[in-house]
Design goal:
Layout lengths: L4 E2 L3 H17 L3 E8 L6 E7 L2 H7 L2 H11 L3 E2 L8 H11 L1 H8 L12 H17 L3 H14 L1 E3 H8 L4 H7 L15 H7 L6
Parallel strand pairs: 1-4
Antiparallel strand pairs: 2-3, 2-5
Helix pairs in contact: 1-3, 1-7, 2-5, 3-4, 3-6, 7-8
Organism: Oleiagrimonas citrea
Protein name: Peptidase M41 domain-containing protein
């Protein structure tokens, strides 16, 4: 799939879910399945995995990280062609990451305006970019995305087979000797308390 990819396309949805799957496998998280939901005007998907709340926090960054890579490489374009501006990319990617932000922060912080607090969006994007630049194996992401585009649904065995990296333990070892995500990418503990209480993050 090494070609230009349009926003909202099935190809982008597969790449997004491939990012989640690659990050999960690299962290030793048990992947269950990936799905592509084809739609008009926008396709989406889902990657299911079994892990701890901290695992969900980290794996939630994978989809944005994959899209960030595509944009950085100039491969993400508007429908019909045309390079995305940085602003257009951020708007599209953060729309695609709506559920992922909930996984990352442990709560839905959407405001009455329909938007999240800007500080939380910036944190999510910053940590997603760190994952993209330092921890993801994009050849593997691409392989998972190609397989998902063909079948629309992959189980755990099919996801792993598409990577060509063997068993989950072997994959984890080959992924930078078990990727160690910096502490700065871990969800701050007070977010869960704010979700329960009345305070709103700035």
């Amino acid at each position: 799939m090494e070609h230009l990819i349009e926003v909202d396309s099935p190809e982008l949805a597969c790449f997004h879910e491939g990012g989640h799957a690659d990050l999960a496998l690299g962290l030793g998280v048990q992947v269950i399945e990936s799905e592509l939901h084809r739609g008009t005007p926008r396709s989406g998907g889902r990657m299911r995995a079994f892990g701890t709340p901290e695992d969900r926090n980290r794996v939630g960054l994978g989809g944005y990280a994959a899209e960030f890579y595509l944009h950085k490489m100039g491969r993400l374009v508007k429908p019909g062609g045309g390079r995305l501006t940085d602003k257009e990319f951020m708007d599209s990617a953060m729309n695609n990451a709506a559920d992922d932000k909930v996984s990352y922060f442990g709560c839905d912080f959407v405001q009455q305006s329909g938007l999240w607090p800007g500080g939380l969006d910036r944190e999510f994007m910053s940590h997603g970019a760190t994952i993209s630049n330092s921890f993801m194996r994009f050849q593997v992401v691409e392989s998972i995305a190609d397989a998902l585009l063909i079948k629309d649904r992959l189980n755990a065995q099919e996801i792993l087979a598409s990577t060509g990296l063997g068993t989950p333990l072997q994959y984890c070892k080959k992924s930078l000797l078990v990727r160690v995500i910096p502490l700065g990418t871990t969800i701050p503990p007070f977010y869960g308390l704010r979700c329960v209480g009345q305070a709103t993050p700035e």
